[in-house]
Design goal:
It is found in: Cell membrane. One of its GO terms (biological process) is amino acid transport. It comes from Rhodalgimonas zhirmunskyi. This is Branched-chain amino acid ABC transporter permease. Keywords: Amino-acid transport, Cell membrane, Membrane, Transmembrane, Transmembrane helix, Transport. With 343 residues, this protein is mainly α. It has one domain: ABC transporter involved in vitamin B12 uptake, BtuC, CATH 1.10.3470. The chain is 68% helix and 7% strand. The protein is built from 15 helices and 4 strands. The strands form 2 sheets. Strands 1-2 form a two-stranded antiparallel sheet. Strands 3-4 form a two-stranded antiparallel ribbon.
């Protein structure tokens, strides 16, 4: 039971990333009808926003410290980060330590701009084109973005540590009544899960309780009628594309300490996230979230040694097996609307 509970936590952690990326994919498909294969690249850009913030905060200048000598008796050259000189050693060190959460403030405007430029500059020209054309052009865009990141940051993963306050682990088992020191879980992974719940809740609240969100939901159901009412639905859908980019970017920012960012991390999540969207139901936001967490947990449970000893390699294919079963028995997905993908 302890092992199952721990693997379930691991699955919720991984499912959080699946759910956030799939949520953005579903927002784009539901509003614009576009199959966006560049969405994984937006997740990657968000992760590299965390890397960029870390590098910016660690920019330093060299000073001569007369109080310290090298082995030849010469004064030592000391590198001092600018933030420490501006805010003092203690405050400056604290700011550097919290570089990943602070990267959220960099990622939001960056992802808004990237999403807006992507939609206005490229995606809008493919609204009425076949899905195959959309997949080809967005997949090509994803490769271009990957190569740009590779050229500027290199091909190797870049460690991006979490704040020191979250560097340890939490004894979740003791808090839930299990034996102490049995279910130990990394604090940052738990923080990522909580963060994903907040973002998902914020997106659903925005769509459900704001006038803007209600118009968008109406436009998703009947775009032409909303347009006849004098509402510029295209502008609102462009904003939703940018919001979907922000969701993917924030998912990448907070995932950076869990999986060191590299230029192909977006592709690693993209295919799985599309499977999540299909299993949840094309265009269904609740379905994307449900399927994200469900498949994350199943993948984690399938990675247990007890399971792999019986079914070797099952952890590598479990998500695709579930997708096949769902598509054969319920083509519209778990929470998809009747008639979708059932022709």
């Amino acid at each position: 039971m302890d092992a199952i509970f721990l693997q379930t936590l691991n699955g919720l952690d991984k499912g959080s990333a699946y759910a956030l990326i799939a949520l953005g994919l579903t927002l784009i498909f539901g509003t614009l009808g576009v199959v966006n294969f560049a969405h994984g690249a937006l997740f990657m850009i968000g992760a590299f926003c965390a890397v960029t913030m870390q590098r910016l905060l660690n920019l330093s200048f060299v000073t001569i410290d007369e109080t310290q000598k090298d082995f030849l008796g010469n004064p030592l050259k000391v590198e001092t980060p600018y933030v420490e000189s501006w805010f003092g050693p203690d405050m400056g060190a604290a700011i550097i330590n919290w570089s990943v959460p602070l990267a959220i403030f960099l990622a939001i405007p960056v992802m808004l701009i990237v999403g807006f430029v992507m939609e206005r500059g490229l995606i809008k020209h493919f609204y009425k084109r076949p899905h195959a054309d959309q997949i080809l052009v967005t997949f090509g865009l994803a490769i271009v973005l990957q190569e740009l990141v590779k050229a500027n940051y290199g091909a190797n993963p870049i460690p991006t540590p979490a704040p020191a306050a979250f560097s340890g682990s939490i004894d979740i088992g003791a808090a839930l009544g299990f034996d102490p020191n049995v279910i130990i879980y990394p604090a940052w992974r738990m923080a990522y899960f909580v963060f994903s719940i907040i973002i998902i809740g914020a997106v659903f609240s925005f769509l459900q309780f704001t006038t803007f969100g209600m118009v968008v939901r109406a436009g998703m159901s009947d775009r032409e009628t909303v347009g006849l009412l004098g509402i510029n639905i295209n502008r609102r859908f462009t904003i939703m594309f940018a919001i979907a980019a922000v969701v993917a970017g924030l998912a990448g920012v907070m995932y950076a300490p869990i999986n060191s960012p590299d230029y192909h991390m977006g592709m690693n999540f993209l295919v799985l996230s599309f499977v999540v969207v299909v299993v949840g139901g094309m265009g269904s936001l609740p379905g994307a979230v449900l399927a994200g967490f469900l498949l994350g947990v199943l993948e984690s449970l399938a990675s247990m040694n007890e399971v792999k000893n019986i079914l070797p390699g099952i952890d590598q294919i479990i998500i695709y097996l579930v997708a096949i079963i769902v598509l054969l028995t319920r083509p519209r997905g778990l929470l998809g609307k009747k008639g979708v993908m059932e022709d």
